[in-house]
Amino acid sequence: MKYTDNSLNILTAKSYKGIGNAWIVKKLKGNESLETIVTLLNKTIKGEQTDVEEFERLKRNFENTLVAKFENYCDGFVALGDKKFPKHRGVVKESEKPIFLFYKGDIDLLSIENKNISVIGLLNPESDIEERERKIVAQFVRNGATIVSGLAFGCDSISHQQALDSNGKTVAILPSPLNNILPARNKGLAFQIVEEGGLLVTEYGNDFKSQMELSSRYKERDRLQALFCDTIVLAASYAQNSAERWKMFGQKLDSGARLAMGYAKDYNIPRAVMYDQIIDESNPMFDLNRDLIKEQKDVTILTKENYIETVEKIMNKKPTVKTTIPVQKNLFD
Predict the structure, then answer these.
(1) CATH of 107-316, one of 3.50.50.60, 3.30.300.30, 3.40.50.1010, 3.40.50.450
(2) Is the peptide bond before 183 cis (omega within 30 degrees of 0)?
């Protein structure tokens, strides 16, 4: 298993009560001495102070536990300040910046130099949606993209599988540790992703303790789907109020894709949606797609007719770092 002394220091520091991602981002740049880290911690933590000896003991504890626990499941872990730690895209507040990742496969696929496209959507797409999504994913792969998604059933699985079928690379971002892949029925797909040169990545080294915690992890996974891509593409998704709109009361029609698209908007990550006005107008599975088109003029639209040239435009767009919300021309303006 590959890891650095710095990554162990970051993990250990975060274990102290009151120390979160924002503190790590503000205080540590990577490879600080133990004395420096302990001094910084003691200025923040409440109650009993720590010292280098205690920090070192906790650090070795984590090291021994992780090596024993993940030896057969994880290729390594990286943290803020490591050479291999991937830079996120977009403009992000400190509390939402990733600082630590466990991985299996090629961690370089998340590199800022790599062209990554997230393709996400709902859990139960109709066959026509799957067919259209597959064509779009295949076109992205033909243009050199690595496909990022969340290994969920439905649109996520379709995007991963089509990337593999097109002899491309794909990255699955998980809400669970690598020794407990979720959903369990997609373990075979996860193994195939790694075997064919892809990547599994997660922020978590321990199992969730409640459904509430798992729900929170899915939200955090959704944010990474936005942060580690150059453009995020929504295949299809219900909206938050789809059940009410279509009078299908008692059914949960909202999807996690809504959160990922929301994060992308907040982070100034370019967004695209799959949508055809004529055939999708009365389909509740495209409620979120329609909402995004109406709300934001900078959302790119992929149709059956334009997806080939539109994929090329997305791929040829040079990444830029902005501190204000970018204004992009809608393809249909």
Answers:
(1) 3.40.50.450
(2) yes
